[in-house]
Amino acid sequence: MSSAVFLPHADSQRLFDLLHGAGYQTLAPQARNGAIQFAPLASAQGLPWGQHDEQRPGHYRLEQDHSPRAFAWANGPQALKPLLFAPQETLWQVERDAGGQMRFAAVAPPQQARAVIGVRPCDLAALKIHDAHFLGGARDGHYAARRQGLLLVAVNCSHPAETCFCAATGDGPAAAEHSGYDLLLDELDEGFILRAGSETGRALLGQLGLPAASAAQAQQAERQQQDARDIQQRGLPKDVSQGLQGQMDHPRWQQVAERCLACGNCTSVCPTCFCHSEREQPALDGVSSEHLREWDSCFTSGHSYLHGHLVRESGAQRYRQWLMHKLAWWPEQFGRIGCVGCGRCISWCPVGIDITAEAAALCQGEQA
Amino acid sequence: MKPTVAVHKFSSCDGCQLAFLNAGEALVTLAGLVDIVHFAEAGYLDEEARVDIAFIEGSISTPHELERIEKIRKNSGFLVTIGACATSGGLQALRNMHDKDQWVEGIYALPDYIELLKDSRPVSEFVKVDLELWGCPINTRQLVMAVRALLFGVLPLEEHDKVCLACKRQQQVCVMVTKGEPCMGPVTRTGCGAICPSVGRDCYACYGPSELPNTAAMARRLQGLGLPPEQIAKRFSFINNHAEAFREEAKNWQGAKS
Question: Please, what is the average pLDDT of chain A?
Fold first, then answer.
């Protein structure tokens, strides 16, 4: 692990200035419309100082107090997903020229150097999955371009929400070495311990010329990480992928479907969900068209519509597809489950369906 | 020869016709693509003309409207309903649940001049409808998509996902989860662009029911947010009160004890 240095809260702006100086646009978490959201931010003053999140199934509230910290909350509805896998974008355009020929043109994504401050370890784990999906095999040019320009300033989680279970999936609350960050912060009451995780990060950190973090500060950060692990109550059943095999006809699917609105919010906030649909958007004159890609969800009918036949008609079938793909079938595709324990699907489900409770009930078999 | 188009008005507020009139540049393009032969609000009058595409705004509420819609159906290639009134009976279908005669007598000085059908109903309950555009009102984007597809000789993609999908694509913060607002997005058809949640308020289902609307779970959630039964019934008995999924759910809560 690279040597840790210390940046007092009073000097937080130096981190922003460092990144700007290196040519990055900085995006950072901010309290907006009742939730923590990532948006461009140039001044450290705009960080969510003193904000706390209260999360429960179907419930998210922000509260402000006099905490001297900027990261005393778990997460908001977004991870890195919307920054890399755009919710809606044009992939290519086509135009019919005067001679009647069709001319196709790819739309290049903007080349941006962006630094995201405040990435959580669970989000880094999800990013690894998205990298495997979008960059492995058939490479997605739009994702790749955005990914290339991205610098990651991660923050270890000191305040997990009631809905968090990253300790159980092994993805947090502290970021493992080589988990993909350029810089990593541990926040203490008086400031940040910083470490570099990449060559870029090391070069940047060197420019700040900060003093080494003290042994007491390092100990405090470790204790805080342990507390953040211990406080988590939720988890997934042991060997969940195995436990779900053979449960395709479990009565629990119908029970959860009676509550499930099939609104797709769980999939939209999930940092690992990557399903999308594509469609044409022709101009009214019929001469040109844009080929759009947008986030889709296994909870829509379009997701399983095949040539005049809707494969997954019921809410039970759609919920089953989501949970089974995420927890039972994903390991075959990606070598791990598709859940990083961020708990977003629990908090942002309008009716508070809890994936950990559903998985537990399903793994217990039909007697449950 | 350009395809011919008519825009007909029935019991409605004229708001959906504004999707044409407020289309800006698209209206100029449209005028180059089709011949508008009847559109009273825009000044074209030929109600009896045979047309390729007829757009219908408004519900069928009077005996005269019933005669007109039957004639229009015969005179039209494609018949497209625009808006909640034509597609689900509209706000005025609220009278279907009450004694209309009593209302008419209570409101009009000379009720003898008011001729009404028993109910306000959507066009599809009387004649075959080829395409329905939901919304109160519909917007220009929907209209342009529909016209373009019909001119290509196909039906447009049906937009029947939940509002939540569009809301989340815009990265709006869920008003139900963060504020406990009784947002109808999870059972409501997309198409509006999630306008209400984008200004921090709850969706009131003006685009009607989505596909697979779990209205029972929605109603229980509203109950959990503290809405009494009559308020839950009202959430479903609003602009698209006559749409089957909403009508049936409302019945479960009308007159129920909290």
Answer: 96
